[in-house]
Amino acid sequence: MKNLFCEKSVLGNEASVEQFFVNRLLTWLGYDDSRILPKTSIKEITIAKGSKKLKYKPDYIVLGATKKPRWISDAKGTGEDLQDWVEQCASYCLNINKGVKKPDRVRYFMLTNGLTTDVWEWDGAAPVLSLSFSDFVSGNAKAKALKELLGADVVDTWEAAPSAEKVTLVRPSPSSINALFAACNNFIYKHDNISPAAAFHEFVKVIFLKIRADRELHKKFPKEMKAGEPIAASAVPFSVRWIEGLEGQHPSPLDVQFQQLVEALEKEVVAGSKKRIFDKGERLNLQPDTAKAVVGMLEDQDLFGIDEDLNGRLFETFLNSTMRGRELGQYFTPRSVVKLMVGLADLHATKDHVDSIIDPCCGTGGFLIEALAVMSRQVAENTALSTGERAKLFKRIKEDAIFGIDVGREPPIARIARINMYLHGDGGSRIYIAEALDKDLEHQGYLSPETAAEVKELRKYLAGSDGFDVILTNPPFSKEYDPKVPSSRKLLAEYDVQGVVGNKSSIRSSILFLERYADLLKPGGRVLAVIDDSILGGDRYAWARDFIRERFIVKAVISLPGDAFQRSGARVKTSIIYLAKKTGDEDAQGDVFMWYCTSVGVDDSARQRVLAEDAVRREAAKKEIAAVVEAFKDSQQGQAPGNLVPAARIKDRLDVKSCLLKPGRKMGEWKKAGLEVGPLSTWLAPREEESTAGADDTVQLLSVRYDGFPEQEATVRDSIDYPRLYVARAGDVVVSHINAVNGAIAVLPPEMDGGVVSTEYTVLTPKDGVDPYAVWSILRSPEVRAELMTRSTGLGRYRIKSDLLLEELNIPSPTTKAVVQRAKAFHDALKMEAQAQELRNQAQAAVEQDLGLRSKTAENIIAAFKPPR
Length: 869
Description:
Layout: H1 14-28, E1 36-38, E2 45-49, E3 52-56, E4 60-63, E5 69-75, H2 86-97, E6 108-112, E7 116-121, E8 129-132, H3 141-150, H4 152-157, E9 166-167, H5 174-192, H6 196-220, H7 222-227, E10 231-232, H8 240-246, H9 253-271, H10 288-298, H11 308-322, H12 335-345, E11 357-359, H13 366-380, H14 387-401, E12 402-406, H15 413-423, E13 431-433, H16 449-464, E14 468-473, E15 480-481, H17 486-492, H18 497-501, E16 507-508, H19 509-520, E17 521-532, H20 533-537, H21 542-551, E18 552-559, E19 574-581, E20 592-596, H22 612-636, E21 644-645, H23 656-659, H24 667-672, E22 677-679, E23 684-686, E24 698-704, E25 710-716, E26 726-727, E27 733-736, E28 745-747, E29 756-757, E30 761-766, H25 772-779, H26 782-791, H27 802-808, E31 810-812, H28 817-851, H29 856-865
Helix pairs in contact: 5-6, 5-10, 5-11, 6-11, 12-13, 12-22, 13-14, 19-21
């Protein structure tokens, strides 16, 4: 026999009555989890039963719209007599109602053993309603009466007056969200005396509850929430008001919400529909006052549906507090870089085809979230789809199309990615904790039984799949696998590319991933990955480029600015490489789209504080992304020839600087304008006067700043590591080999005559009739510095050799009348600067003398206690 909720045969002990009957009954009455306090969240009290004192608490306290207790429910086994428990329920209601005004009191309690269900007024002498198992069927009068008595909508009418209070939730801005998340982090860390990592984990729990609550508000009040209009305060479960309404019932009301969340998620984990986010039975481990204060900081914000820009800040804020420097490089990809790569991928989600996507080192899930957003938007905007078709596609995208893998276990980055995905509308059902480079997924080290089962699921999926359509990823650059280490040797044995390197050298993970991409993609599948420029252009990685050309067609290479990964502390020069897996030997390499970005990746500062200039940078990055994506699409149609590089140009190097840029770009234009053009050696000659200073002699060691001015420091010769030093004379042009491209080129003033430089500098002396400041202004111009970059072979650091500087670099003549006239202004400026400095020195000395502000004692104190440099 079966009713609305279950078969009678499944009912037996108290647990089965609670699970199969009461839980479903409460849902049928219209209550969601936020309005049901489970037994684990209820305070136990001492009650009288005859002459005895007993500890007692019911299974559930059911809350009204204002989250005040309204009635209680207690389940018993099918063999128990409900009458035996009436006194305990009534006593518990009495305890709750102490000091509570009549309109806000608990009104009823319900006792059930599944076979019989009785509802009592809390102080009544007999049940007001009694139902049998068979009464819970559609159309039954008693079932209807129960719904009219205790249904959620009916109970809400008991609280009509308080619901008049309104609140408005506001959408946070990028500037406010940074400060808000940082403030929450600091508050938890300082007030609960826990580690930054623990503070991060606790705040993730709180933010999870917040976004989940805001999602429900958007479902319940779609019009008001979208428009930012007021809603009933009583309907907002994540609020100080709600906490204060329950403080008498539980020491930590927010923990009650979290336990309900964990229980709901656990059911999905057990059912196999979701992967684990929180441990079974996990609690909110914040002091109640701390939790309440953090809720107060967040309650007025509407965080549901915040885009990945804002959501990403949450994880970056807290991971930044737990890790530093290079560790972060594997977790953070600048959001504008993510948007550009997903835009170039041109993802598709239609009735006929949904792209399958994987990020084998997904970090906190940035690529996956952007892919989810782009494909979901396609479905939402497709007017040709029916409501049912649209819902089916949404489900397919979220549950079957997007995969992520990450090996990080401390902190558990894949679990953080699951949280991130869940907060964006997906449960992270396809995000796995595993070593993606392990081809057979057999050498995973110690795994919990649950994680091992997840890896087995992934192994089974990959074995039965023909591959993914798209890989979007930013692999770790610095991690290496050493064949001398047994665990690495097992993994490397699976790789063809290891045969090229041999078993004597360690190999970088980013190179192994090139082969792994080919394994994971279906023929014709495409990969967009961040890649270290040294692999694209360095001499030692020519074999890796051969491997790329063997397995893939190179579609595009996009150079990223050197500071693109400043937020993670990484200083590696990188690019985006777009490859298509070959479908057969007949696939021929065509022209390659190349572009160098100036704004993408540098629009999100590493500092916490947000400045007005950040908005300008973000807008510049947004425009650049649109320009690159449009130009790439044009190039696929045979347009945008200026950004296409012939296949012959990528037979060796693949970096944009080497393949796209052409030396001497301005020479024709200069000559056309009638200018004399020639190598720098036409006007300057190298000075090769080696210093003869002895080991104990003091020398004036010169250096050149980016602004083009020299500095010197008295240094003992023996403390300088360079074997040779060269002398520079007044009027010489001193050029830094390392930083000339940054403007580190100076004219030596008379007061620094005789200073010395290391072999990292070239000293040039002007030939007769050549003004050094005329040459200085030309060499420091953007065009000439760009030419130096183009001609240098370096990647990321552009070292300039003397012969390149003198013989390969062509510049317009510095002896033309116009340039000589302009150079006079530099001399005049130097004189005025010297005069200004002299005036400052005189004024300072006069003040010190007039007020007695200089003494030998003061100078000795400064010398003795000045801090270390």
